[in-house]
Every structure is written in C-alpha cells, then in structure tokens.
## 1
Amino acid sequence: GAVVSQHPSRVICKSGTSVKIECRSLDFQATTMFWYRQFPKQSLMLMATSNEGSKATYEQGVEKDKFLINHASLTLSTLTVTSAHPEDSSFYICSATSGTDVYEQYFGPGTRLTVT
Amino acid sequence: GENVEQHPSTLSVQEGDSAVIKCTYSDSASNYFPWYKQELGKRPQLIIDIRSNVGEKKDQRIAVTLNKTAKHFSLHITETQPEDSAVYFCAASSARQLTFGSGTQLTVLP
C-alpha cells in the first residue's frame, strides 16, 4: 500500500515553455502533498506544501508564480514549471501523507526535468 | 526554521564492517526522525524512523538512536554489504515538514 506515482518520469523542454508534472496517490487519500527539488549530488529541498482544496504554501525563495501547484483532489497534485529556464533543470520529487500517519511521507519516483 | 546537519559526507567501509552516520537538528519541537536510502536517479526509500518518545530502534542490521537533550540522532548499519552502497539522508520533522540533512555517500568495498 501507500504508492505514489509521478508522470512523466523524464521530460525535456525548450527554454521559455511550461511543463506540468503530475503526482498521484494510487491507493490512499493524500491529505497533504509536498514538492521537492533535488539538484545533482545535493539534498532534497522542500519547495511547497499543498493541502487538497487550499492554496499551496511555498518555502522562502520559491517563486509561486513560476512554480504553480494545484491540489484539486485527494489523490492528485500537479506542479507546473512556467517559462522554464536551464537553471530549472532538476529532479522534482513529490510526496504525500495519509490520514493514518501525519508524519510518514510516501515519495513518488521523481521527474527528471531538462530545459534546453 | 529547522536546520539539520549530517556527517560524514562520504564514508567508505569494508564489507562486513559497521557504518555510522550522525545528524544534529536545531528545532526542539521536532519529533519525527526518518532515515532514507537513495540510489542514483531513484526516490528516497525509508529504511527506519524514530519518534521522540523512543531512544533507540532496531530493524535487523539497521539501528537508530536519538538523544533529544543533545538534539542528535545516528544511523548504525552493521555487517555492511555491497548493496548497502548508496546515499543516505537523515531528516527531522516539525510541523509535519521534513528537513533533510545534506546526505552521506556510503561505499561498501567488497
């Protein structure tokens, strides 16, 4: 149980375009979802926290107008990188918590974004 | 906010030896301390976690200790195997958000 999927697993886009990443909880309802960014050889950095039906809470330094997060249902959150630039190239990972344990986070497999 | 420091950044051990990774945290309100193993290009995999009402937890070859007074926790892996080679991250959670340490590249030499 507690499976989280992400789509796509890899995406290459041109500078200036937008790309959407989906995060789904497959067998549970996710009360809260988190989006992380991980640059090569670095740690996971929290970008934002989202609760279903509410606006996402962004971490300091993360531009909310550039990284649009929508958490429209208890099983789906999306991250849209708008006007992507090469410096946005990174590994984006989502996670989710269920109602039974508010601490343990279930991670998606990640999305490798390359902006050319 | 929370700050988590992790040491060492790299660790090489001979197969069969033990490995210890240490983390400190700053927020005394943190009460959940998971450890993750991450292989290249993969998601972080939870290997063990400990909550603030427990001082030590063990699962086969893996153990974690927590000292809330000193605000530090450690991961111990015994009888290491080559498949233990990966990057290990500690994390601390307050207000349900995880703050990760900087990671330790563990290499187990056959």
Note: The two ends of chain A are 37 Å apart (CA to CA).
## 2
Amino acid sequence: DAMVIQNPRYQVTQFGKPVTLSCSQTLNHNVMYWYQQKSSQAPKLLFHYYDKDFNNEADTPDNFQSRRPNTSFCFLDIRSPGLGDAAMYLCATSEPGQANTEAFFGQGTRLTVV
Amino acid sequence: EDQVTQSPEALRLQEGESSSLNCSYTVSGLRGLFWYRQDPGKGPEFLFTLYSAGEEKEKERLKATLTKKESFLHITAPKPEDSATYLCAVQTGYKLSFGAGTTVTVRA
C-alpha cells in the first residue's frame, strides 16, 4: 500500500562522492517535493516540480540537483556531499487539482557522510 | 517570506493530561494549513487540513482549529502512543513551508 517510496532508507557516502536518492509514487500526483530535514529542525524545501516544471528554492545549494524523468519518479543528486549535507531527505507528492491537497510523504532516506 | 512558528518546542504530559500546541504563521495567500505527526526516523504522517478561519477537524484524541493568524492542535486525554513530533505546515501556491515542530512526550 506504500504510496510514496524512497530508496534507499539509509545511505552512507564518502565526502565528495556523488550520491543519488530516489523517490517513486503510485498516486499519479503532479507535484513532487524534496525536503532536507536535520535533527530537531523543520523540513526545508529544496525543490519542487509541478509536472515537469522545476522550481528551485533560492537558498538551495548548487551542489543539489534534481531530475524527474516521468510522473512516477524523482531523483535527488548531491554532486559533492559535504559533512553538512548529512540529514534525512524526504520526498512528498500532492495533487493541487483535488479537493484535498495534502502532501503525502515517503519514509525518508537517512544520509550519512563519512 | 512565509514564516511558521510552533510552540512550545517540547511538551511533556502525563497520560490523560490534555494540552494544546500552537502554530502561528505569517504568509501571503494561504491555500491551506496542515498538521502532520512525525515519529523518530520516519516521514511525516498527514493528520489534518484546514482551509479557512473558524474551521475545525477532529480525529480520535486530536482536534485542530484555525484562525487568521494561528492554528491549535488540542490533545485530549493523551496516551503514550500519542508521543511524537507534531509539525505544522502552510501552503502557498504549490509550496509547503514547515514549522520546526513540537515534540510531545506522554508518560504512562
């Protein structure tokens, strides 16, 4: 029944080594989000897509990139991870055209940088 | 810039001791206010959506209310399983902005 699936749940990467996190959805929602959440902090929006229209937050570092090859899949690429990029990365989807516009979240990927 | 502030940061309750969490917001063009529950190491789980001032939603021991400047999440007679971090988020356009959350601990 999982509707937003993130892989992997846990990812360990080396300092400076590129890493990709993936998200898939079975809801057919138009909007997909990537959030970064550090311990005891609010989830911070990195990007969102409305369909293929990409929206980058002004303070998202250039080190973070995203791809959405189709409606179901979205990827977060971190080109050169630093120690400060260790966090939980959350993917979410929503469908603004529906009566209920809440976002559904995946279980997250915990990224560790060593 | 949209701002969402939650208080208190942490709340320790005895089982059965009712309390309220606050979410105050400053946004332009609010489309909706959302409450989520987040357990440690997991993604947020949707609880409620509120769209207009005066609106109320209830689910089991939780009740959410909305005014033009803030929202409250009331927890009535909490149980230990209600222990979690409760996040508030506001939607403007397609963007969701979150508060830092209130971590609730309910002791048996």
Note: Chain A touches chain B through 29 residues (CB under 8 Å).
## 3
Amino acid sequence: DTGVSQDPRHKITKRGQNVTFRCDPISEHNRLYWYRQTLGQGPEFLTYFQNEAQLEKSRLLSDRFSAERPKGSFSTLEIQRTEQGDSAMYLCARSTGGTGELFFGEGSRLTVL
Amino acid sequence: AQKVTQAQTEISVVEKEDVTLDCVYETRDTTYYLFWYKQPPSGELVFLIRRNSFDEQNEISGRYSWNFQKSTSSFNFTITASQVVDSAVYFCALTNTGTASKLTFGTGTRLQVTL
C-alpha cells in the first residue's frame, strides 16, 4: 500500500465530455503530483502541489485541464471537452518533499471513444 | 533538457538467469537524482532505488544491484537469479535537485521471466 488512492480506476467517456479524477493521499505528505502515462511510454509529469499551492504545470497540461487541491488534502484533475488523445493512465503520487521518492497510486485509466 | 534512454524494449529470460536492464541518461546539471521504478501487471509503480549524482558507489539489495557510472552516464540495474515475480516493466528516471520530484522517465523495459 503506497498510501495513495485514486478514483475512479477506469473511466470510459465519449469525446467532448468532461471527466474528473480524484486522488487521496495519506495526510502527512505535503507534496502531490499528477503524471500521465500513455501505452508503451513512461509517465510524464503534469503538475504538482505543495499543500494547496499548485507550484508547477507542464506544457502538456492544456487549458482543458485543471487541477486543484483544496485545503492541501485530496486533489482533483478535471479534463474538459475530452479528446481521443487524452486516453491514458492518470497517475497521482505523493512525496515527502525535496527530491524524495514518489509513491504512486494505482492510477485512473481514461478511455475516450 | 533531460533525457533517459532505455534501449531494451523487452527482455525474456528463464527463471534463475541473471538479467541487466540498461539506462543511459542525459542532463546538463551537475547535481541530479536517478531512480528505478517497477510497474508490475497490476499497474502501480513501485519505487526501487534513488541515487544522487555524487554517490557512485554501487548498491546491492538482495537480488537487486545497481551500477552507476557517471563517465558513461549510465545507471544499470541487475537482477540476480530472476524469478517469475520479477516480471514487470522497469522504468529508469531522472530529476535535478531544483525540480522537486518532477521526474523524467525512460520508456521502460518489459521483463518477462518464465519457468
């Protein structure tokens, strides 16, 4: 158990619909990360939070994507007007800060039809 | 820009064989961290090791060992006496110390261990 829960585990949606993923890390780790992994590739960094502050966003995160972490606890990643290219595994991870190791959740797989 | 190359896409071995997974990295930073992660069929990435750029000492943990060579920008991973449970995709990753845990991952090496 890595202490990161993600929901839903799998989401199938039609192109143009909005989807939201949720990540619940155990409380004592103040950094939370979102990564995206497409088939046959390694994870790619999307964004990260320190407590409730979103400190960095990748250029992969287009304006259709938004992430929040209210009160520095759970986080949500919303994708608006989904496109087929958004199909991927969305991974959430926590860390203790600095360049500590990341502890990943099991991911939320998005399939856009 | 940082880059991690895992040239071996897929490796198949028979149980009890030793296997080495290659990782070559590129970075302009003098201080950086290297990682290995395992992704079993269940999908959850599992942290294996972190090594900083100032520590070139090789590390052994049970059947796992890592060989870090700055001269060749490589951070190779060896599994001794492989087991079926080692079957997974293994990722090498890199970050510099100024970017928190914003890791740059390689494309992974799929290891298949058969009886």
Note: The two ends of chain B are 41 Å apart (CA to CA).
## 4
Amino acid sequence: DIQMTQSPSSLSASVGDRLTITCRASQSISSYLNWYQQKPGKAPKLLIYAASSLQSGVPSRFSGSGSGTDFTLTISSLQPEDFATYYCQQSYTTPRTFGQGTNVDIK
Amino acid sequence: EVQLVESGGGLVQPGGSLRLSCAASGFTFSSYWMHWVRQAPGKGLVWVSRIHSNGSSTTYADSVKGRFTISRDNGKNTLYLQMNSLRAEDTAVYYCVRESQDSSSWLRAFDIWGQGTMVTVSS
C-alpha cells in the first residue's frame, strides 16, 4: 500500500496568514493527489483534485502543487471558515490511502 | 440535488452483523465507482471498500477482507455494505462516497460524500 505522510499534524494560525501543508507519498503517484477539508461533525469536502485543480465552488485562496511524491496545499489568506482538518489522499491505486490529517486551529 | 444518504448504523455486539445502505440521487448512479470510507471517533479517514460502476469488481481493505461485502443495486440507485463478525475496532462513522474519474486527466477524486452513519460495536 502507498503511505501518505502529512506535515505538520497540527498548527495554530491567525486570520490572514498564509498557510502551507505538505504531503509526501511513499512512492510516485504522478498527479493523483487530492485534498479534502473536514469540519467537526461534518463529512469531508473535496478542495483540490489532480494535485492542482480547484474543485468547483472552492475559493481561489486554496491552491495545490506538486507531482511524483511531494505535494503542497496552500491557503493564501486564512479565513475564519478555514479552521478545520485537512487530508491528502492518493488516487493512483487502491487502497485509496489518506494522510493522517492536519488540524488547523486559531492561534 | 446530487446527494448520498446513508442508513443502517447503530449499536451491535461484537461478533454481530449490520447492513449499511446508501441511497443516491441527482446523478446517474450506474456510471460511478462507489466507495465506503470510515472514521473512528477522533481519528482520521480510512478507506474501506470499492465497487465498480457495474458491480463487476470489488476491493477491500485488509482489515475488513472476508468480513465485509460491498454491493450495489443500480436499479434502486443504492449502495450497500454488509458487515459481519464485527469487532470493537470497527466502531466508526461510515461514509458512502462517489468517485469521479476522467480517463483523459488525473481526475480520480471523492467528490460527493454522504453525511455518514455511526456504527458502534460494544457489549
């Protein structure tokens, strides 16, 4: 199975901050990398697919980059509604493994 | 409106069985691979199982192989997860998920999620 490792596991940030979360795959996954946002008690929501494509309806402050084994999710200016847990996921092969999550809370 | 609605969760004793259902609406259900993903309380997302759009192929996580069975009824727009020999470690919220794909790009993503149904395995 492909292992996905996110860093950091948690972070504290302020509204307006620029935020970067990284995700590393245990082997090359080309651009088959997705990012999800999950708020407490809610189902995850797709933010970014194919490493850098913004899902319809997602604000443009979210962006993704990378290919192969190293990927990043960037939030250009953190908004109050962005405090949540973020997961990366590889869709190169089955099982569709997720990273362990990055919890973003208010500083 | 495109949506997935799970049902069938609840409290079950270790060794027991439960069948989850997921009703799809607002899209052509028979065109999509479907998955189950679970999340134990306070933990991360874990992929459980997948079924091909026509039901011809299924795949399972090692942790549930031989105990869980995924199936679908495209005539009823419904996905199922039959869970047998349940263990305490199966306690989780179970999400029904649609996977969108595009063979001309790198699109393979879980774009529609149900609200989840809680399964608790305890005596």
Note: The first strand of chain B starts at residue 3 and ends at 7.
